[in-house]
Design a protein that fits this description.
Number of helices: 13
Order of helices and strands: HEHEHEHEEHEHEHEHEHEHHHH
Structural class: alpha/beta
Largest sheet: 6 strands, parallel
CATH architecture of the largest domain: 3-Layer(aba) Sandwich
Helix content: 25-40%
CATH topology of the largest domain: Rossmann fold
Distance between the termini: 36 Å
Radius of gyration: 22 Å
């Protein structure tokens, strides 16, 4: 199997596996178990994102995989709770938040020159991202002053344009298409509120990108990232995309609260950096060594010594 050859050729001292849903993941796990190579499961799944949660057999299979791993990396507390429910020892679970390139998102000062609140959507224009739910909520607020900038492309672009024309909003809805990552910091800083109505994401990076840019986030309660990162009323609010009236009401209340303390919003996430996340990954590796009875070996490996910024 190609995955086994690739792993064997790399001669890993610890193996990080990023899922359990394909034969390749299982092959990697059993390869490591046979050779006493410590294993770390890096998992973003939760009960909110799992599509097999109601199937007892699928849950047993996941649990069997989890019990054979030595430590775990999750992006937040929702994922930690999920893995613990599958049999992971809580003390072996390390939280390493998903974080963007903080060098790009280095400031949060507003660059807006508009007179009304600016809403922002970032993502593929597909139904799974909650685009129809967002449009339905905004339709109830078309008499309120706001503008909407939509960044991303996809099959729903024509539907969005038609919706905007029918509702007399064509001059207030901008479809920007794809924007280069290096230019996204400017996009966020021109916005006041991020709409994140996704129906099936675990930890979308648009959420921390917005927070680092000082943007207030209305995040879907169907994604673990919203529960983990949103501090209600401080840097955002949870919304239920399928509740059109409730979603619209929350948008309306948030529009009335503009502008926000962008510096305060940024501070809710800015302590998380690529360097700090790397440190947590190393810590998970050390936990795996200890759990696998290989702590003496771990102490001799210079590659597992870590310091912030190192």
């Amino acid at each position: 199997m190609p995955v086994i050859r690739a792993i064997a050729n790399s001669k890993p001292e610890v193996l990080i596996i990023t899922g359990w849903s394909t034969p390749g993941y299982w092959a990697a796990l059993f390869w490591a178990r046979r050779r006493r190579v410590p294993t770390v499961l890096w998992a973003e799944s939760s009960g909110l994102s799992s599509r097999t949660e109601s199937f007892s057999t699928a849950r047993k299979i996941k649990s069997a995989f989890v019990r054979r791993c030595d430590s775990f990396i999750v992006p937040g507390r929702i994922g930690a709770q999920y893995l613990a429910g599958l049999g992971a020892a809580p003390e072996r679970i390390v939280v390493a938040r998903n974080t963007p390139d903080t060098g790009i998102f280095h400031g949060c000062e507003s660059s807006a020159r508009h007179q009304v609140a600016s809403l922002l959507f970032v993502g593929r224009l597909v139904r799974e991202k909650g685009v129809p739910e967002m449009l339905a909520a905004l339709e109830l607020l078309k008499d309120r002053p706001w503008t909407l900038n939509i960044v991303g492309g996809g099959p729903l672009e024509g539907e969005i344009r038609g919706w905007a024309r029918r509702n007399g909003l064509a001059d207030r809805v901008n479809l920007a298409g794809f924007v280069e990552p290096a230019r996204m910091a400017a996009v966020y800083r021109s916005a006041d509120i991020l709409l994140l109505p996704t129906l099936n994401d675990c930890h979308p990076l648009v959420l921390p990108e917005a927070l680092l840019s000082g943007v207030f986030v209305l995040g879907s309660d169907l994604t673990a990232g919203s529960h983990d990162l949103i501090e209600s009323g401080v840097n955002g609010k949870l919304v239920s995309p399928g509740d059109t009236t409730g979603f619209a009401r929350t948008i309306d209340e948030t529009l009335a609260s503009c502008p926000f303390d962008r510096g305060l919003i940024r501070r809710t996430f800015e302590a998380t950096t690529p360097s700090s996340v790397a440190g947590e990954i190393v810590r998970a590796a050390l936990v795996a060594f200890s759990a696998g009875g290989l702590s003496d070996r771990a102490s001799t490996q210079g590659s597992f010594k870590w310091k912030e910024g190192g």
